[in-house]
Amino acid sequence: MRINARIEPPLAKKLAYLKAKSGDTTSGVLKRAIEAYYAQEAEGTSSPLKALTESGFVGCAEGPVNLSVNTKRELTKALASKLRGHRR
């Protein structure tokens, strides 16, 4: 199928960047973009949190359960502990 599309200058600049970066043609860049967009929508990974959770990134580290609430306190404790180790 042949497609004729009009795009605004900001998108044209992005397309030119992607072509130069990948060394691909306009058709190649658009095909990859359509495949990626389709996979995102069809597979339901449109949520960044869902994508990170499914990839195993979320929950891959250990630490205090309430770290997001007590960040300053936990960081202060960790730094104090580290400094005590260097003073000896």
Short characterization:
The protein is an all-alpha fold. 64% of the residues lie in helices and 0% in strands.
What would your notes on this structure say?
With 88 residues, this protein is mainly alpha-helical. The chain has one domain. 64% of the residues lie in helices and 0% in strands. It has four helices and no strands. It is elongated and about 70 Å long. The mean pLDDT is 86.
Spell out the key features of this protein.
88 residues, mainly alpha, 0% strand, elongated
Chain-wise SSE layout:
Blueprint: H1 9-22, H2 26-42, H3 48-55, H4 71-87
Rg over CA atoms, rounded to whole Å, is: 23 Å
Compressed to H and E, one letter per element, the order equals: HHHH
The structure class reads mainly alpha
Alpha-carbon distance between the two ends: 72 Å
Number of helical stretches of at least 4 residues: 4
